[in-house]
Amino acid sequence: MRRVGAVVAVSLALVSGGCASGAEEPASTPTGAAAPVAVPMASPVGGSAQAVIVSRTDCPEPARTADGFQVASVRPGWELLSVTEEGALRGGAAASAGTLWALRDTGENPATPVRWKDGRWETMAVPPGMKGVKALATSPDGGIWAVSPGAEAWKGGVREGDGWRELTVTVPDQDRTVPDQGGEDRPADAHGGWVSSGATAVHWDGTGWERMDLPADQGAEGASAEYRLFGSEEGKEVWAVPAAGSKAVRLREGTPQVVEFALRINAEEAIHDTQGGAFYPQAVAVVGADETWVLGAAAFGTHYLEEGEDTNAGRLVALRHAQGRWSCTWGPFHRENFDGAFVDAVPDGDGGLWTVTTESTLWHLSGGRWTRERPPADQGTEPHVTDLVATDHGIYALGSVASAEQSRGALWRAG
After folding, report:
1. What is the pLDDT of residue 9?
2. Are 310 and 14 within 8 A, CB to CB?
3. Looking at domain 6-65+106-341, which CATH architecture does it have?
4. For the segment 239-283, what is each residue's pLDDT rounded down to a tens digit?
5. From start to end residue, where is composition biased (Basic and acidic residues) (predicted)?
């Protein structure tokens, strides 16, 4: 699960002023008792629960100098396991028995699936009928699906033995889909048997495909909505998080629910009076049966203090949901040149979580304490982490190491 372009997408939203409303925030709305969901959800998923609005009342902004993370740097505890061919590794998925799969992306050809086995990467054939793979999903029985959603049809393959069997992905009521503006180049993501593309997500329930419609009114002007999928390893709680926007969708026990993050920060210096200092969710880690962390940034567009050029101001925020209540951890405020963003997050298996930022810094929350470290890399190369994957054999980071000459796929494992 990876979001390389999160900062770009949010920056476009801030400059255009299109992702945050200038309307007054609703009066204090008790979490879990908000107005009904305003966006349609596909009926096969079991209807829609009432929307949740997380407001300034739930998460008031502290002083601009406050740093609730108090994150401390530590010596690298991650091991660089592999540096591969030119390109990057992304889209990781864990099959049964902890087998790690990923996509190798060179930026020129469609991505191809690879499997980590016996200390090396094996390049796997692309499933029949597919030019490339856009997302890898874990099937309900622990197998691997390769999926490539398109404007007209969603193609796929399921791994069986040493080969692929064609997987027919039927999107229920596909004619109801919001007109696609991404075409065949539209990205996709997957988690826990769910696959998303644009404002549509589908899931195999054992007998047929379920569909969940996601809010389509989020994203840069003229672009279709784009979502990333996160959740518990067993798939009991799945989140769809927008690439640009403040409304996520949480799926619990088959019922989708919009979670709108309406908390605000002081935006007196904003470029647009209507901006309002929006919060943008970026990654989710479900660390327990009743504990979920939503990581993101509260930001707004502003100007350089001296040159007067457009820039971003903001601060990182981590929201914790436990026992029906929201609480927040706020980072320090950056008045300009703010490019903070979380790329991915996974539970650490011991009540905490790992997350990675756009600077490829790995943050660990354990026992209520935040620490951070840089992934190791060979001399003369710069590490870039875009994906975290939790398996039965440990937690892995996927990405690349770049030098002046080239970028090569890389794999790390937490010590």
Report:
1. 52
2. no
3. 7 Propeller (2.130)
4. 999 998 999 999 987 789 999 999 989 988 788 765 568 999 999
5. 174-189
